[in-house]
UniProtKB/TrEMBL annotation:
It comes from Paramylibacter ulvae. PANTHER family: MALEYLACETOACETATE ISOMERASE. Residues 1-83 form the GST N-terminal domain. Signal peptide: none annotated. This is Glutathione S-transferase.
Amino acid sequence: MTYELAIGDKTYSSWSLRGWLLFTKFNHDVRIHNARMYTDEFKRLIAQFAPTKLVPAAKLDGAVLWDSLAIAEELNQRHPDANMWPSNPAARAYARSMTAEMHAGFGPLRSDCTMNLRKCYPDFKPSEQVLADVARINELWSHARREFGADGPWLFGQYSIADVFYAPVATRFATYDLPRSETADTYINTHLTDQKFRMWRAMGIAQNYVQPGYDLDLPNVEWPGPKPLVAKAIETGTPENSNCPYSGDPVTHFLEIDGRIFGFCNAFCRDKTIADPEAWTNFIKIYQN
C-alpha cells in the first residue's frame, strides 16, 4: 500500500491535524507532504491532489480523497483490524453521529476560536453562540464518557475516529479557556498529554509559521499542556551522540539540556526536540541513557 497525505500549518490547520492523526494514531504508514498555507508552495502542493482545494487531502494507492471524513471511512474500510470505530454497535452509532455533527457543525466555535497551538487566552470572552456550541460539546463528551468510556480515557474508552475529530476542539478549549465540566477537562487533558499530539505541536513550534490574523490582541499565558523540559539551541559543542536520533545521519546541529549536549542532522530535528523533548521517543532513549 502507498499512502500520501497533504497538510498545511501544524499550528493553525485543525483539519490537517485530523488528517495526520487518522494515519499516525492508527499506525498507517504514510508519506507526508507539508506546505505553508497562503503561499505558492501550498498551491503547488494542492495541485498534486486535484481536484481538492483544501487540506487534508490523501492519495491511497493513487486514489485521491479530499475530505477528512471520507479519508477516515476509506481507511476504516481498508484496515478493519485497526478498530478505528468502536466495536460495540451502540457506541459505534453514537461515535459516528457525534463525529458527523463535528464535521458539519459548530460554526461559531470554528469562526471565533480558530485553532492556535501557540497561545492561551485566559481573558477571552466567548459569544452566546460560541457558548451554545461549548455546552453542546460538553454534553456530547459527557454522554460518551459516561455510557461508553469505561475501558480507557478516550470518548469511547479506546481511541477512535471520534477522538481524531474532537482533538482540535479540545485544543480550542485550552487556547480560549472555554468553560468545561470536570469530565470535559479530563478529556481535554488526555489530548494535550497524548504523545502524538505533543509531537504535532512541537513540529508546529519548530516550523515557526506565524500567520497574520490568527493571534488575538489579548493577554497570553503559558500553554496549559505538559511543561516541557528546558532545552536551548547552541552553535557548537561535543554531543553525547554522533548520529541524529531520528534520521541516523551525522549530527550538525546541537542543543543543550541540563548541561548535556545532543546533536541532530538539521535545524528542524533540533528545534522540534527543543519544543518538547519528551514528545520524542528516539530522543528520550538517548537522554535517559
